[in-house]
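Recap from last week: sequence in, structure out.
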Amino acid sequence: MTGNTLKTELAACVERFTRANPNSARQLEWAARVMPGGNTRSVLFYEPFPLTMSSGAGCLLTDMDGHRYIDFLAEYTAALYGHSHPVILHALSQGMARGLNLSAHTELEARLATLIVERFDCAEQVRFTNSGTEANLLALAAAVAYTDRRAIIAFSGGYHGGVMSFAGPATAMNVPHRVYLADYNDLHSVERLMHQHRGKIAAILVEPMLGAGGCICAAPGFLQGLREMSRAHGALLIFDEVMTSRLAPGGLQEKLEVKPDLITLGKYVGGGMPCGMLGGRREIMAQFDPRLGRLPHAGTFNNNVMTLSAGIAGLEQVFTREAAIALNTRGDALRQQLNQVLAPVALQFTGQGSVMNFHPTAMHLQRPMELSEYQKRLRDLYFFHLIESGIYLARRGLVALSLPLTDNELLHLLTATRAFVDRYAAVLPCD
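Predicted structure tokens:
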């Protein structure tokens, strides 16, 4: 096994990808004339060029060159219902018939809010936004106003939207909150910050499982420790469940039995339409009550008919408590099977339930790791191998299951992964 051999294998795989997808390559060139890099969403770009999809149905995608893929990315967890689910389509058509945006309160917003309050234990009241990013910004505004403090503790490797990303070097895109970064799964690092900035911490903002950070699970006792510590220091505990709320009927807060003060939601809860939500304790959420006039919160499309209609239909008719349990049970079984296939070559998937991430290491991961160039090539080789096998996932290795996936599609992923191990045994690390 040598780095040069791996580099050669990856180059050959990329060359096959390039030859097979001329229309996607041309599409990027055309798009780059009117958009920087031909891109309007950074996470979707990868070299040599990203695939351009032309349609989707159920759990299948079709690209501009006519190739069909099993969608194991599911819009970075948001496409829980797959593509063009008939129940969601019916709800959208009914919503459009009533008007897209009615310039007023509608009965739909209270209906969806009721479903959220019933499902997520910590959410006594709800406020709608247009994205998970907005929901997290709203949560921090609420925490700062409620505690009359300015500082936030977040975690290295955490992701809370395009303007609150703590993975890798500091980014100029981040909003100028006073954020102190602790290490995930390390309560001592949080305690140190609490003591260094005693009386100044408004909130601890945490994902119950790191999402973009690689599907790193919270260690036993970690979230419970944050709950106790936040109470002891008079800070709020905010769970960012934009990605993880699908992992149990009432989110990971229910599964792990830790109740935060505030929860942020997004992705699938709008039925596949743009959405975000902030929920939490009544006395905190009361700050947004316009009758009290303390915290204004605007947003033209906060209560748009399309999102509300799709969200209600999805939660009432499709992603029931029973469906949530079944999907995540299947995901746990799939991850275990994948890891059995990968065990001899020291690769792994981490995660919970229906969301998981491929890692080019067998090391037990408590927090995000810095990949070597060799490991990055291993990850990329797996990505391009799966593309050749008719499987679409994130280049960083993220896999999210959707409801339309059947056992046949799951078996296809397992078979393709086994073929990867066999095909590239000479360049893969041994256990």
